[in-house]
Amino acid sequence: MAEGIQQVLRKLDSEISKIKGNVLLGLEASGNEILRIALPNTPIDTSDLRNSGFVETNKDPKNPMAAVIFQATYAPFVHEDMTARHPVGNAKFLENAGIAFAPKIAAVVAKHAKVK
Fold first, then answer.
1. Mutual orientation of helices 2-38 and 93-113 as an angle, nearest 10°?
2. Which of 66, 74, 84, 107 is deepest in the core (most CB within 10 A)?
3. CA 10 to each of CA 13, 42, 56, 75, 109: distance values in angstroms, whole numbers, following the listed order
4. Closest among 89, 105, 101 to 27, alpha carbons compared
5. Are 46 and 52 in contact (CB under 8 A)?
6. Whether the Cβ atoms of residue 53 and residue 69 lie closer than 8 Å to each other
7. pTM score above 0.90
């Protein structure tokens, strides 16, 4: 009887780890969608700012996380300067993309989290 319980627990642990891994995929997919929404609204001069955008995941199964990052050194200044006028794009390009996509994140994660 104890061996049967151990098998069930091992199977359960295996399935839970798949769910956690799939949650990370859902978070990464959400981050990629936020980046996709942000890019057309990202001010462009030399394309460096737009080209510096990417999604990074931490791959920690206990605390899965994804972040959308613009790594150009001046990205925070362009993002926060509400007084600047750009021929293409605008301030708050990442924040606005996050706000626009936020209502869909839970559904995207849930879709990916299903164990296949």
1. 150
2. 66
3. 5, 47, 31, 46, 24
4. 105
5. no
6. yes
7. no
pLDDT in tens, 70-104: 999 999 999 999 999 999 999 999 999 999 999 99
Instruction: For residue 87, give both structure tokens.
Output: 């021929």
Query: What residue type is 60 in one-letter code?
Result: D
The whole-angstrom separation of Cα 87 and Cα 77 is 17
Q: Per the structure block, which two tokens stand in for 84?
A: 């600047």
Neighbours of 79 (CB within 10 A): 20
- How many Å apart are CA 97 and CA 7, to the nearest integer? 45
Q: What is the DSSP string of 23-36?
A: HHHHHHHHHHHHHH
Calculate the alpha carbon distances from 39 to 3, 62, 79, 94, 105 in Å. 54, 30, 12, 8, 18
pLDDT digits (tens, 9 = 90+) for 43-63: 998 899 999 999 999 977 778
In the chain, helix, strand, coil percent, each to 5? Answer: 60, 10, 30
Around 47, how many Cα atoms within 13 Å sit in the side-chain half-sphere? 1
